[in-house]
Amino acid sequence: MADRTVLPLRLIRAGLRAASRVGAGVADRVARTGVATHPAVVDPQAAATARRPVMIRFGDREVAVERGRTLLEAAREHDVDLRSYCGGNCSCGTCRVEIVARPEGLSRRQSMEEFALGMDAARRGDRLACQAEVLGPVEVRVPDWF
Ligand code: FES
Q: Stretch 49-59: mean pLDDT, rounded?
């Protein structure tokens, strides 16, 4: 009898976890692109805005990038000198940048990024360029490490 009540609860929990993962994926995609992907809810004006390039200022250089790219990808595309010893795997911290203005132009920081940044840098609002996705205009400073 006890097995009959435990099994449905496990299924319900598994279902809730799966639904939560799907919901988080959709929310991230909408935040990144500004577009809901279901054809019934696509707004043509929002879709056009999402396709427009976003301006990033790296120090004294301003570059245009596709929305949803990471700061590291943007730096590589435009020959900005930004180190990335782990290749963008969120483990070395060498791609750390300081956010000078408009931090809202980047995706939210995730727990792995905070861990790799360390408490002081995270508290200052620094970001790892390999993890921060560009959602809108932003101004960053690349520290001179060497
Ligand atoms: S490139 Fe290593 S943490 Fe970003």
A: 90
For residue 48, is it within any domain? no
In this structure, the answer to whether residues 59 and 92 fall within a common structural domain is yes
Same-domain check for residues 99 and 136: yes
Owning domain of residue 33: 2-43
What's the pLDDT tens digit per position in 113-123? 999 999 999 99
Residue 83, number of CB atoms within 10 A of its CB = 17
pTM: 0.70
- Ligand 1 contact via 117 beta carbon (within 6 Å): no
CA of 65 to the centre of ligand 1 (A): 20
Substitution candidate for ligand 1 out of 71, 80, 90, 109 with most atoms within 8 A of CB: 90
Please indicate, yes or no, whether residues 38 and 84 belong to a single structural domain of this protein.
no
Inform me whether the pLDDT recorded for 40 exceeds 90: no
Distance from residue 24's CA to the centre of ligand 1 (Å)? 24
Element (H, E) at 98: strand 96-101
| 30, 72: one domain | no
Q: What letter does residue 110 receive in the DSSP assignment? A: P
